[in-house]
Amino acid sequence: MNPVPIRNQAVDAYRGFVMLLMMAEVLRLPLVAQAFPDSWLWQTLAYHQSHVEWVGCSLHDMIQPSFSFLVGVALPYSIASRMAMGATLGPLFGHACWRAFVLIAMGIFLRSTHSPQTNFTFEDTLTQIGLGYPFLFLLGFRPPRWQWVALGVILAGYWLVWALYPVAPELGFAGHWMKADNYGAAFDRWFMNLFPRATPYLANRGGYLTLSFIPTLGTMILGLAAGRWLRDSAPELPLKKFLVAGVAAVAAALLLHFAGVCPIVKRIWTPSWTVFSGGLCFLFLAAFSWVIDVKGHRRWAFPLVVIGMNSIAAYLIAHLWDGFLIDSFRIHLGADFFSFTGPAMAPLWRGAAVLAVFYWVLLWMYRRKLFLKV
Question: How many distinct helices (H) and strands (E) make up the chain?
Answer without folding.
Answer: 15, 0
